[in-house]
Amino acid sequence: MIWNREAECAEPADRTRVQLARLMETIEWARARVPFHRDRLDTPAPARLEDLATLPFMRKSDLREHYPFGLFAVPQSEIARIHASSGTKGKPTVVGYTRDDLGVWAEVMARAMVAAGCRPGDLLHVAFGYGLFTGGLGFHHGAERIGMTVVPASSGQTARHGLLLQDFRPAGMCATPSFALHVAEAMRAAGLAPDACGLRYAMFGAEPWTDGLRRALESAFGCPAYDTYGLSEIIGPGVAGECEARDGLHVADDHFLPEIIDPGSGAPLPPGREGELVLTTLTKRALPMIRYRTGDLTAVVPGPCRCGRTSVRIRRIRARADDMLIVRGVNLFPSEVEATLLAIDDLAPHYRLVLDRRETLARLQVEVEPVPGLASAALDALRGRVTERLRGALGLSVHVTLAAPGTIPRSEGKAVRVIERAGSDILEAGTSPGRNDTP
Ligand SMILES: [Zn+2]
Q1: Which residues, 6+ apart, have CB-to-CB distance to 375 below 8 Å?
Q2: How far is the CA of 248 from the centre of ligand 1 (A)?
Q3: Is the pLDDT of residue 93 over 70?
Q4: Ligand 1 center to residue 277 CA distance, Å?
Q5: How far does the centroid of ligand 1 lie from the alpha carbon of residue 113, in Å?
Q6: Distance from Cα 63 to the centre of ligand 1, integer Å
Q7: Mean pLDDT across the stretch 392-406?
């Protein structure tokens, strides 16, 4: 089943025509209504899609500098809803939607969710947070658009999720991957079987997650796990999602035009090359975003998809540029540590990084839990193996701590993977790897 065959399977020439017409309309719309855009887009509108590369980028700081409503292109009375990120560093990022924008959002959510297996009449357990965060309400309205039965469970209250999954037997669930793992663990501890709830599919997003975590989630819930991608600055979840081929995420590219750029020079990169994802909204009226730098590292997947959709696909987000840690001159991403750890037998998928900058040379400590019940003799060998693998993968010596099973803090929304210590205090507890939205 394909939700919108006309849009999702359009001939390339037809799609390009629609994209260009909508791009010109968006630029006109923004320029006529938002002083910020009027000043920056003081050039003729692009005559070809490639001309987009001549326009300036937008960054998260632009939203902060025009907090709260300075980039809105319609009066507040025409805004139907507002969402916001948590703003761990200062003020939140505020985004707005007209009634029509909310319609677009439900439409693109429906596309991504149907691609992951959602069907009219299915029961969906929504374990993303509801509120200013876009996760819960995004999936909620997508599910209603499809004609599903929605259980708006939200995040938190872990034990109750187990009960609802067990008793309601939903066809699908959606959550952050870290919270879903926590739910599965809590269910097993309570004597419930998360892999026997009858789930047919699960959709995850809002934080980068590796294929190792995918395998752990699929084994925990006994169903395939699909990746979804989005960010509130563009619309929320629904920007892109995996189909049954799971060979990249299909972008709703008649609504969001993707570019991949070299994060250093800003130059466009060809399909297949990894760089920073830049998105331009093509239909959003309340908050048009033109060449927004997402900070997410990915690549365009070349060639057609076997599902029949012709929309452009992006690789799963490997990392967020903002999450890069520099330790003793080595650049590394928390997701690289995750990929290495989850490929090692006898480790549970729970870890965190503690970066200690109190000495001249920063020290990276990796805390990870072994699976329960390992003999203490096996623990020493395991620690040695983990240290060796991480050194090989990262090109850096790290200090590995095997924490007692169940002791690394679990996520009730978005995982905190990195703790930084500077001076005598914890300087910052980042929410990385993940979007800066609070579930
Ligand atoms: Zn596909």
Answers
A1: none
A2: 8
A3: yes
A4: 19
A5: 13
A6: 33
A7: 93
Give me ligand 1 centre to Cα 2, in Å.
10
Residue 6 has pLDDT above 50, yes or no: yes
Out of 38-47, 97-106, 227-236, 270-279, least confident range = 38-47
Closest CA to 322 of 437, 204, 435: 435
Please, which residues have CB within 8 angstroms of residue 82's CB and are 6 or more apart in sequence?
A: 94, 95, 96, 97, 132
Tell me how far CA of residue 21 lies from CA of 14, 38, 347, in angstroms: 11, 19, 52
Distance from Cα 120 to the centre of ligand 1, integer Å: 20
Whole-number Å distance, alpha carbon 65 to ligand 1 midpoint, is 38
C-alpha 302 to ligand 1 mean position (Å): 12
Q: For the CA atoms of 391, 394, 396, 399, what is the dihedral angle to 10 degrees?
A: -60
Residue 175: name the closest of 135, 208, 223 by CA.
135
Query: Hey, what are 82's tokens?
Result: 């507002």
Q: How far is the CA of 318 from the centre of ligand 1 (A)?
A: 19
List pLDDT tens digits, range 416-434: 899 988 765 444 444 333 3
Q: For 161-219, what is each residue's pLDDT tens digit?
A: 999 999 999 999 999 999 999 999 999 999 999 999 999 999 999 988 999 999 999 99
pLDDT tens string 293-309? 999 999 999 999 999 99
Distance from residue 290's CA to the centre of ligand 1 (Å): 26
In the reported structure, the alpha carbon of residue 301 is separated from the centroid of ligand 1 by a whole-number distance in angstroms of 11
Whole-angstrom CA distances from 194 to 89, 346, 408 are 37, 20, 21
Distance CA 32, CA 234 (A): 20
DSSP letter, residue 318: -
Please name the residues in contact with 335: beta carbons below 8 A apart, sequence gap of 6 or more: 208, 209, 210, 318, 319, 323, 433
Q: How far is the CA of 38 from the centre of ligand 1 (A)?
A: 38
Residues 292/58, Cβ–Cβ less than 8 Å = yes
